[in-house]
Amino acid sequence: MGTAIRRQLSENLKRVKDRIESACALAGRSADEVTLVAVTKYVGVDVIRHLVELGQVEIGESRVQELTKRAAMLHESSARHHGPASAEELPGPRWHMVGHLQRNKVRTVLPWVQMVHSVDSLRLAEDMDAEAGRLERRIPILLQVNVSDEKTKFGVAVGAAIHLAEQIVTLKHLSLIGLMTMAPLVEDERWVRNCFARLRELLEELRHERFGTPQMRHLSMGMSHDFELAIAEGATMVRVGTALFEGIEQFAESPGGTG
Predict the structure, then answer these.
(1) What is the pTM of this model?
(2) Are 142 and 122 in contact (CB under 8 A)?
């Protein structure tokens, strides 16, 4: 079973990377400019371990409980092989929190993550800053923007994003390095691409007119069904789940998921 999982994952990973390279070539960009974040969805820890062994170390999760459980399990497994060490010192995945983060879950998740993509309020940022200070860390974050203005999506409104960013950059234990969004699930590619373009324009405004710091350069946008369009509009991180885990649903922990 392990061999079958690894073979399927290897094929899927190559296919996704080929798609990224092709999209970058069409956009006149280098594939090195785009980081693939593998969204774990509902696959088991063994599947994630195989993925990491294949070299895919940037791992995203949208649910706090699942992220902390899986991170702890992989940490324990590595500790058995490498001896006692902190989560950051051990070889293994770099965890990205890509889903909505509630303020009461900040203390639970922050010790495990290398980046949070979904900061959308000052109160959440302040809680994260306080916890990061307690951990003696400076955590990279992305501001989630609801570019499509959909009531069912989280994220700060476009019109309020600059003001919120100005407040967040004053927090000394957080490092605002870019923006994140989710495009609407529609067939109209022009609408989807326009959403990605609007996020890019907002980042350019933040960089050139408000902040201008080198680290403010990331755009986390695009998933399995639309990341080529996101890359065309400047995505530096794409969050892919479905395309990576196609064909290994039988090894899932529970049904459902998006990515």
Answers:
(1) 0.90
(2) no
**Which token pair is 176?**
């605002």
Which of 43, 66, 68 has the alpha carbon at shortest distance from 56? 43
User: Pseudo-torsion of CA 24, 229, 203, 140, nearest 10°?
Assistant: -70
Contacts of 112 (CB under 8 A, 6+ apart): 67, 68, 71, 72, 87, 95
* Distance set, CA 203 to CA 3, 168, 249 (Å): 43, 15, 37
Spell out the domains of the chain, with CATH numbers in brackets.
2-247 (3.20.20.10)
Q: What is the pLDDT along the chain (259 residues), one digit of tens a residue?
A: 578 889 999 999 999 999 999 999 999 999 999 999 999 988 889 999 999 999 999 999 999 999 999 999 998 876 666 555 544 455 579 999 999 999 999 999 999 999 999 999 999 999 999 999 999 999 999 999 999 988 889 999 999 999 999 999 999 999 999 999 999 888 889 999 999 999 999 999 998 766 656 788 999 999 999 999 999 999 999 999 999 999 886 555 543 334 6
210: which DSSP letter?
I
